[in-house]
Amino acid sequence: MLIDHVSKTVIFTLIENAAPFIALESYGALTLFNKSILQGMGTVAFPLFCFLLSEGFYYTKNRAKYAGMLFLFALISELPFDMVFFGGYTMSAGTFPFYFGAQNVFFTLFLGLCAMCCADAAKRGGAKNIAVGIFGTAAAAAAASVISCDYTWYGVLLIAAFYIMRGNRIFAIVLFLALFVLYRQTFPSVWTLIACAVIFFYNGKRGNIKNKYFFYIFYPLHLSLIFIAMFLIRYF
User: Fold this and answer.
1) In this structure, what are the phi and psi dihedrals at residue 149, rounded to the nearest 5 degrees?
2) Cβ(223)–Cβ(81) under 8 Å?
3) Tens-digit pLDDT profile for the chain (236 aa)?
4) Is the peptide bond before 220 cis (omega within 30 degrees of 0)?
5) What one-character DSSP code corresponds to residue 203?
6) Model pTM score
7) CA separation for the pair 108, 129 (Å, rounded)
């Protein structure tokens, strides 16, 4: 994720600024490396976020608190998200630092958790619970599209799919790839397949970093630092 965001902002700006001073071949090579390699590496992150969110949802003892944390950091992250990715547009439009046309990935994760709650109801069986699962998940995916959060309906359905298919990694990965092709309208890249491999070989054990809030804080923090870097590049 960090590589992807730095690639789309800092490195992209540096390459564009250097364009008048370097050979056309060098500019093309740098642009290709930035898009194909660095941004490609960045695509590994989101399916892993979705998969680990489904794991966290399964193990958490307090789903309401889990949802509350995601929503809180969605709100905290929105301002740096807007400033980094839409700052230039909002400055010209006179709405800086706010941009209302897109929302950060924490909103996607929050709606994905809501979808998992609905899917969990469906897993208990019964016509009513199944209806709640289907329509609730569809409503969460629709909400993601309406507010234009990162990955929109695809992100929400992917999270729900990982939860529904929990315990069967192969089916989960197949469903992930099907959703990917439907959303992207293209075949998966090698980076997407790497994400599949990481998910498949996940051992189900928690990592060495025990402070889970580090990962919440990292998102708005790294966006804020990117904004500062972009400001320095543009004005100094």
Assistant:
1) -75, 165
2) yes
3) 999 999 999 999 999 999 999 999 999 999 999 999 999 999 999 999 999 999 999 999 999 999 999 999 999 999 999 999 999 889 888 889 999 999 999 999 999 999 999 999 888 888 888 999 999 999 999 999 999 999 999 999 999 999 999 989 999 999 999 999 999 999 999 999 999 999 999 988 877 766 778 889 999 999 999 999 999 998 88
4) no
5) -
6) 0.94
7) 23
